[in-house]
Design brief:
Chain B: It is a single-pass type I membrane protein. The structure holds two protein chains of two kinds. By secondary structure, chain A is α+β, with helices and mostly antiparallel strands. Chain A is built from four helices and eight strands, in the order ααββββββββαα. In chain A, strand 7 and strand 8 form a beta hairpin. Classes of the chains: A alpha+beta, B alpha+beta.
Amino acid sequence: MAMKILRVFFFGLLLLQFPLFQVVRCQSEIEADVEGSKLGIVREDVQDFVGSNFKPAPGVETICFFPRNSAKVVPAGEKTELLVGMENVGESPLNIITIEASVHLPFDHRMLVQNLTAQVFDNASVPPSTQATFPYIFALSKFLQPRTFDLVGTVVYEINQSPYQSTFYNGTIEVVEAGGFVSVESVFLVTLGISLVVLLGLWIHDQFKRISQKTKAASKVEVGTGTTDASMDEWLQGTAYNQSSSKSKKKK
Amino acid sequence: MARLIRNSLMKALILIFFASVATATGDAPFIVAHKKASLTRLKSGSERVSVSIDIYNQGFSTAYDVSLLDDSWPQDMFDIVSGNTSRSWERLDAGGLLSHSFELEAKKQGMFYGAPAVITFRIPTKAALQEAYSTPILPLDVLAERPPEKKFDWAKRLLAKYGSQISVISIVVLFIYLILTPSKSSAAKASKKKR
């Protein structure tokens, strides 16, 4: 009875998986769409600047920093933040227009893996002789293979109405799979591994038993009932067999 | 003759070394400041803003007399609950991190657009006080009307987050249990036969 209930529960649990998986999928899709957030209202002419190439301005230094992430580990499908530091060594204020980035293969920069959403700024400026920091939040596609990729990040800004562009980062990032240690695949793999080891152990144990049985059997030889003297058996006393044998003895 | 040549070579090398050191780019501190603000709604209905500012020095030399001032929270909209909106430190070495946080209580409802915090510091090579700005914060919807959470929203969230892992572990454990426990019905049959 208990086994029946258990089996029903087991199959019921298996069937319950499908709606649960769907819930999880929906949530992650929504998250992947939010790849860059906007600060403020969008400028009208921002499309002229996105995707174009300008030269860097002299007197502007940029630095890229991954907060609390010195190994530059980026989980695929989850939001990652990096900080762009700008130093304006010149004499006129500069206005940040947009920060954009793209992911490439490390050995060939012409192979584009993913273009990341550009973050547009409306009212971000850096006064002369000051340093300022700007955040850039991005999320890589969760289907990216976990390996090193090259991230190229550029910031487009204008000084006195002329646009300039600086690359603040052109290096490698380490993409890893999002998700903890316990996942569907890892649990099944671990259980499979343990069961294989147990099976191997059982097989070795069997082999040992067989070998030990063979050596024992050599010393103990099974003999049938042929060599025992039937007349010596107690239970034949008083029976027809004994009387006939005693008669034959008397006759002799 | 050889000694003379060697001496002059050494002097030339020392000169070049000092010249390169003096003209080396990036020998100043580069302050990168990260400002984060998050809203927490208390059970009493009031809203708290937790502000944390991390200051990193990504340059190559030490910044002295680092002082942080965050004046972007007006008195008529926020009350300081704990901590101070300004703080100063003696120095920040290259590669180091300084952290400061404080809490505010929101008084007025509405969208709030915060300005960056200002960090001032001194460097040995320049007399003027150096300035750096932190990251701006995303607009905060202070004391927003939140729709009441439906009955089992928290359970649904937990299930969505951990559902797959819990079900996988329970399937595996059930399977192992099924294999290890002997079938009770067959044992009962065997004992009946013996009688």
